[in-house]
Each structure stands twice: as C-alpha cells, then as structure tokens.
Amino acid sequence: MEIILNLLPLTDSERAAFLAAAPNEDHIFCPTDHLTWSACSASLDKLARATVILGCVPPHMLVRNTSLKWLQAWFAGVDPYLAPGIFPQRAMLTSAVGAYGQAVSEHMFASLMAVLKRLPQYRDNQRAHLWRDEGKVRTLAGATVLLLGTGDLGCHFAGLVKAMGARTVGFNRHPEHPADHVDELHPISELDQWLPLADVVAMTLPAAPETNHIIDARRLALLKKDAVLLNAGRGNAVDGYALAEALRSGALWGAALDVTEPEPLPAGHPLWDCPNLILTPHVAGSEHLDQTLRNIAALSLDNLKRYLAGEPLKNRVL
User: Fold this and answer.
1) CA atoms in the 13 A half-sphere facing the CB of 253
2) What are the beta bridge partners of residue 169?
3) Is the predicted pLDDT of residue 90 greater than 70, yes or no?
4) Coil, helix or strand for 202?
C-alpha cells in the first residue's frame, strides 16, 4: 500500500478525485503553502514513511525519509531538491512545469504595459501630489520582442504580446524545435546580433551555469535606449548592478523584475531607487492566481494515475 502525503490545497471535488484515483492507498491530506510549511499531526508521524508526496516539503526534512518513491513538487523549478545529499536515492522527482504559464505571463505582460505607458512614474507623481505630464509612451504594435527562454512561460507570454501586434523572436538551446506563438527561433549564440534590434527582452530562463549573468553590462550596452528588459526566470540571469546603472543613466526605457540576485534584494541595492523599474518579490509564479492551484492539482492527479499504472511520469527530473 502506498502512503500518499497530499499537501496540495484542494477543493472538495479535487480531493474526491484523488481518493477515486487511488481507492486502495493510504491518503493523508494536509493542505499547506510553500511559504509557511506546516504539517498536521496526522502527517508528521508518517512523513518519514510516505512513499508518495504531492506538494513541497522543506528539502532538509526529506533526509529522514527512507521510503520515498516519488515526490511531485508544485514548483516548476526544483533546484533545492537537487543539492547533493538532499533527495533520497532511487526516488523519482517531478516538477510542475506547465502549471504557471498563465500566471507568470500575465504578470510579465502587466508589468511591461505599465513600463511602456510610464505608469510607475505617474504613481510616484500621485504619491508626491504632482500633476505632471511624463511625456511620450510606447506601444507593442510592430515591436520586436526577444524571448530568452521559450518554454511554458515564454510561449504564454509570446501569445500575449503577439495579440498586441508584436514580432516574437525566441532563443533557446534547441531552436530546431517549434515553440507556440514564436515567429522565429535562434540559438543563444546569435543573441548579440539581435539585441540591438530589440524593443523588449523578456527572460524566463531556468537556472543553469551558462545563464548566470547572461545579461551583463556588455549586453545591456547593445540594447537601444528605448528598450525594456523583463526577467521572471532566475534572478542571477541579470547583473543587477549593471542594470541599475543602465536605468539610472537613461540607457534603457525601463525594466521589470520579478526575480533578483540575491533574494530578498538587500535594502541598500541601487535597483530599489530606479524610477523606471517595476520590482516585485518573486510573486509572478506564486499561488496568488487560483487557476495555478487548479493546474497543479490536475497535473498531480494525472501523474498519480500514471504512477499507479506504471506509466512514465510527466515532468520527470530525477
């Protein structure tokens, strides 16, 4: 019998669906959230014996588990579980890639439109009680949008900007594979020749050694003065100090960051004081949008059925 520790915040109908999918297994339902993880008393005594975990447990707590066969994380990125000595040997790990596209892309799109229309400056004026025209604004109609990363997040975002009349140009490690809503694809090695043509650079890259500071001072200098930079992937993909200098000097129209290096951003970091920057605390892909939770539940249920049937799991990392 499988001991299934289900930490997902489920609706009544979703809980019933999990029970129906595995009627002969031991289910422990303990809804929680990833920021303040806590376990009910019923699950604490079985956490170390759970064979299946649906949701996220703090990585250090997995060290106690010698029975785990599979963990379905509710994050798209599972980096904390990949550190040496953390994840139990021979256990499978799957991510929630595909659940966050709508939430992250809508956040990116809203931030982009706010920057293009100078809304941060107008909000600053409102707080200062200033009735002042901030000048010309921008449109996405006819704009060239570079997509650094063309997975679930990048493709969802591409669909939104294409609806506004933008041209989308994607960059990834496998440009031979088509991507939804992306007009053309290129290898990362061609990025430098495209940066001077970009009106928007939208980043949704996963963590990898080769993406560390992929946007640095040199590449920022290649951009037009009216370009906009977005990052909703990993904070270390952008050199934050170089970006702050570019924004302060007027070398860019603006930027929007949902991720930074490090997180939280230190109080004295120069990015805090850039007026043409929208800065959010890594919340674009959080569970603030209810549909994201429903997507995670549906993915987890589908993978549970696959697991019990001995079929390959979706989004397998380990």
Assistant:
1) 25
2) 146, 184
3) yes
4) strand
Give the residue carrying structure tokens 């595995």: 22
- 3-state SS track over 121-169: HHHHHHHCCCCCCCCCCCCCCCCEEEEECCCHHHHHHHHHHHHCCCEEE
Angle between helices 290-308 and 101-116 (to 10 degrees): 150
d(CA 71, CA 73): 6
How many Cβ atoms from other residues are within 10 Å of residue 142's Cβ?
10
Question: What letter would DSSP give residue 265?
Answer: P
Q: How far apart are CA 54 and CA 310, in angstroms?
A: 17
Helix ranges (H only) for the chain are 12-21, 41-47, 101-116, 119-127, 152-163, 191-194, 217-220, 240-248, 290-308
| Cβ–Cβ < 8 Å for 100, 285 | yes
pTM of the model: 0.92
pLDDT tens by residue, 137-190: 999 999 999 999 999 999 999 999 999 999 999 999 888 889 999 999 999 999
